[in-house]
Design a protein that fits this description.
Low-confidence stretches: none
Order of helices and strands: EEEEEEEHEEEEEEEE
Number of helices: 1
Structural class: mainly beta
Number of strands: 15
Distance between the termini: 31 Å
Oligomer: single chain
C-alpha cells in the first residue's frame, strides 16, 4: 500500500498476529505526519483452499478531523524474469503487466521491456483486475465488494536488480510491479474504511 506523496512517516509496526487455524496473518502499522495527524494501516491475508488469498486493507482514522489521501495505491507485488525467479531459461519469456479495463472488457498489456516502466507509468481507466507475470508465475489482484473495480486505474513500475550469472559475472535484470489505484480517499473522524481483494501469487497452472 502506498500514497501519492511522501509526507507520511512510519512510526511503529506491531507484532503480526496469526489466527488459531494458522491460515491468516494480520499486520498493523502506525503512520504520522508533521502536523500530528496519525492513522493505522491494518492488512490481513487469509489463505483459502483454492490457493486464493482473501486480502483486506483497513485504514483507521483516530483523529478529530477528516483524513484525506490524494491517491491510494494497492500493490500486487513484483516479479523478475523466470531465469532469476526459478533458475530456468525460457525460450519465449512472457514478462509483462496485464489489466482488464472495466468499461470495455479489453486486456491492456505492458511488456517489461517498455522503457516507460523506468518511471511510474499511470493508466487512468478503471480496471477489474491486474496481473504481474513472467513465463510461469503470476501475482493477480482483484477488488471485491462495492463496484469491484480500481476506479482510478493502475500504476506500473520497473526497477533493476543485480545478480551473478553462471560464470560469476554481474548482470542486471528488471523486476516489474503494479498497483491498483483507489483514487482520492477521505475517511471520517474516529472511523475506518476497509477494502477487500482476492489475491493470488504462484504458478499459472495449479494442479
Amino acid at each position: 500500500v502506498s500514497e501519492a506523496n511522501n509526507q507520511w512517516k512510519l512510526i511503529d509496526v506491531y507484532k503480526p498476529t496469526v489466527n488459531e487455524e494458522k491460515n491468516s496473518v494480520t499486520v498493523k502499522r502506525k503512520f504520522s505526519k508533521a502536523d500530528g495527524t496519525i492513522f493505522y494501516l491494518t492488512q490481513t491475508w487469509l489463505l483459502n483452499k483454492s490457493y486464493v488469498i482473501n486480502y483486506s486493507v483497513s485504514i483507521n482514522n483516530p483523529n478529530s478531523k477528516n483524513l484525506k489521501f490524494r491517491d491510494l495505491n494497492i500493490w500486487a507485488g513484483g516479479i523478475p524474469p523466470i531465469q532469476y525467479l526459478a533458475g530456468n531459461v525460457a525460450r519465449s519469456e512472457a514478462h509483462r503487466i496485464d489489466v482488464l479495463l472495466a468499461d470495455t472488457n479489453d486486456i491492456e498489456s505492458v511488456k517489461a521491456s517498455d522503457k516507460q516502466l523506468n518511471n511510474y507509468m499511470i493508466q487512468y481507466e478503471p480496471i477489474k483486475w491486474l496481473s504481474v507475470s513472467d513465463k510461469y508465475f503470476a501475482c493477480i489482484l482483484k477488488p471485491i465488494g462495492g463496484k469491484g473495480i480500481f476506479s482510478a486505474g493502475n500504476i506500473n513500475h520497473g526497477y533493476t536488480q543485480k545478480a551473478l550469472d553462471e560464470n560469476g559475472k554481474e548482470v542486471e535484470y528488471t523486476v516489474i510491479c503494479a498497483a491498483g489505484r483507489m483514487g482520492s480517499t477521505e475517511i471520517q473522524p474516529n472511523s475506518k474504511q476497509t477494502w477487500d481483494f482476492e489475491y493470488y501469487a504462484g504458478p499459472k497452472d495449479v494442479m
